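User:
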Amino acid sequence: MDSLMTAAARALAAGDPLGALNRVALRDDAPALALRGIAMAQLGDLDRARTLIRNAARAFGARQAVARARCIVAEAEIAFVSRDLGWPAKALHTARTTLEQHGDRVNAAHARYLEARRLLLIGRLDAAEAELANFDPAPLPPALRTAHDLVVAGIAMRRLDTRQARTALARAERAASEAAIPALAAEVESARLILDTPAAHLIRAGGERPVLLDEVEALQMSKAFMIDACRHVVRNGDKSTSLARRPVLFALVRALGEAWPRDVTRDELVARAFGAKSADESHRARLRVEMGRLRATLRGLATVNATKRGFALAPSRTGEVLVLARPVEEKYAAVLAFLSDGEAWSSSALALALGASQRTVQRALDELALAAKVQFFGRGRARRWVTPPVPSFATTLLLPAPLP
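Assistant: Predicted structure:
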């Protein structure tokens, strides 16, 4: 590699894409195309960056397997940043294997972290954790150590292990400082803010207040009777039951939990569970049936007692009832949670991340657009959806991943 290419590569490693372009902007050989593509990616022109990286990969050809594999890793990173989650993960895995076989540990590790971050984004926490298992990042450059600890922190936050998350973020902050790349330091700071931003609302007898992720973790370990509206789970000590597939029953138990220790009138329960403005005999009959199902579901956790006005909740093993509500009571809160990262998402990527059909996601986006909560640009397959980040709450509990 000539001196200009070396200087350009060092400028890119230091986070100076303009300095790199000053040296290679007029060159069309394969290494220069690759460096130009990375520089354009750092400047935010992802479409141009993707084109340059693909041209570089073709220019290197099959004989230069390592250089070609590095281009595939760079293209995979551009796809991740542009939220093209359908990008073929098998190609990235093959490139990583090639780099490992040729002794390029640094770029192989970078490919590993891209795979782990993609898995984390779509909620496959066990698979993301397996990517990092038995892997020591200590010999790697500071930038990759930062990436490693950001993934570890992300997994810990989704699992509600805030102590491990804070420890990983502290390591990431030190590594980012050592790397001296401002964008990397900003990413660490953005991740840290999640831990210091309200992640849910706690409703208990006497009032409601926002709670941080640390408090949510503590509440999961408490002995109180917990109605978790973030994951639609009812918990009493070490016993729990999921009502994620039984929305009517969950609406009923949540209404009873929010009113505890008072009872809830039948008319109010009908409105909460069935959406009826007024209760007739058919609604009351259906309410009796659903209450029987709720009693059977909550057996061993709580009982539901009939009162003169309606029904009241009576926990079996504790004297306190808590309701953990989402920070935003929005029908499409999960969609907004992903869009709040400030990146441009396609409907297909959102469908993959949410585990829903693309048609369902598209309907949600159309309704949010009518309500002026999201915006789009582009047409057809190039259409992307964005929304300004919401700084008033953390989105961790809105993302689809099981709580411990």
